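Internal ticket - ligand job 307, phosphoric acid mono(formamide)ester:
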Amino acid sequence: MNNTHLPRHLLTLDGLPFDALDALLTRAQAFADGHYDRRALDGIAVCTLFFEPSTRTRMSFTLAAQRLGADVLNFDASTSSTRKGETALDTLKNLEAMGVRGFVIRHHEDGAVAALSQHVELGTALVNAGDGRSAHPTQGLLDMLTLRQAKGHDFSKLKVAIVGDVKHSRVARSDLQALRTLGTGEIRVCGPASLLPNDGTLDGCVVSHDLDAALDGVDAAMMLRLQRERMEEGLVASLDDYHREFGLTAQRLTRAAPDAVVMHPGPINRGVEITDEVADGPQSLILRQVSNGVAVRMAVLEALLRG
Ligand code: CP
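stdout (structure tokens):
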């Protein structure tokens, strides 16, 4: 893909033009189909710098970088000198001094990756792997690739429901931005009032607190994880109550279009956000999302680092 499509760092999908998004998804599909050069990032060092836990994002970035031939360093915050008080910026600058050119960063603070990007050398690229509740751009991309594979490239007739804890979800923000850029016909958002943001994030969406109504005729149900690590006490009465009102069950799914697909970024709170029957059922694309994560991250690393 043409690198001029992308900014120097991938911090957010907000403002990323349609052409750039489309080019990344097209390239990711080629990777998903097995077409790639195992030496594309030969001699380039990439570090996953995670200050929050992760399974899918970290492992898939590692695999993506390895498949393209990069040297990969996995930084473990729990055994690093951050335990002795070294800052994230000093950590990054020291790794950069060793020759690392690509940083994949997850941090609990909103805007942390953008702030770090102000201090790196011209040839260094940063990817936001999730910052606070702000953005998780590669999750947004892999979700769009998964939707495209299932529903085609024209999103203009699609009805998509995003369900659950939108307020604390960086995934939801990146999905909303990408769905808008791709011209999605109708975006519905459903969750308890206490877990929906009222800061303009949901502008243009059909907002409801009734899951049965929100699912009516949808082509895709994108379920969200309850982000309890970012939640104040008492925002959710109880997990049983949450499941009763906002959990996706096989019975509820019958309200969606017959060929509707079900997605969830993981990790899943089984029996809370979604039942086993649905998560593991024929309409679930949850593991497809995970597979696509590797391909999307290959496309992002290639675009940012092979310039
Ligand atoms: N979807 C996602 O970001 O999963 P991890 O937290 O396991 O990376």
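Auto-summary: The chain has a mean pLDDT of 96. The two ends are 10 Å apart (CA to CA).
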